[in-house]
Amino acid sequence: MRDEIKSLLPELAEIADGSLRDKVVDVWEDALKAGGWKPNDLMRIPFTLLADHVDIMFLEHVRTVCKMCIAMEKVLKESYGKRVCINHDHLVAGALLADVGKLLEYDEREGRIVKGRAGEFLRHPFSGVGLCFKHGLPNEVMHVVATHSKEGDHGKRFSESIIFHHADFTDFELVK
Ligand SMILES: [Fe+2]
Predict the structure, then answer these.
(1) Which of 66, 79, 110, 148 has the most C-beta neighbours closer than 10 Å?
(2) What is the C-alpha to C-alpha distance for residues 153 and 127, in angstroms, rounded to an integer?
(3) pLDDT grade, residue 52 (50/70/90)?
(4) CA of 85 to the centre of ligand 1 (A)
């Protein structure tokens, strides 16, 4: 399963720290197994259940937002150099893991993908952090997962989470 995850998420190669890269794959593998999904399901699970008639799939959303984050970081660093503080590895790992908890939040019933029982209690930022904590992801990456969505609106977001949050909502608003 690990090789399938790596081929579905080529942006993993952007993470320079091999140990961090492996932990990101660990979390995806665990989430897929715990949720009862197969890697290819990532191409048929809708990216959100908050809108009707979604034709953008989970994997497309994760990869698109990750690529947007990398592009935003590049522009910001080209423009401002050291005046902006953005950790590339933490940004990419956070971007790849922010929505992984949806694999626990969602369920499939009678051929329809719906919010599952677990998802009624814990939205994906919470289950995502739980999975990341279990696999030893650094606090900086768990911060992106924890604060990327509305749950993070009332606290401080660090640079990587600000970038991810806005890229994520740009994609969400445009394609929902
Ligand atoms: Fe999310």
Answers:
(1) 148
(2) 18
(3) confident
(4) 23
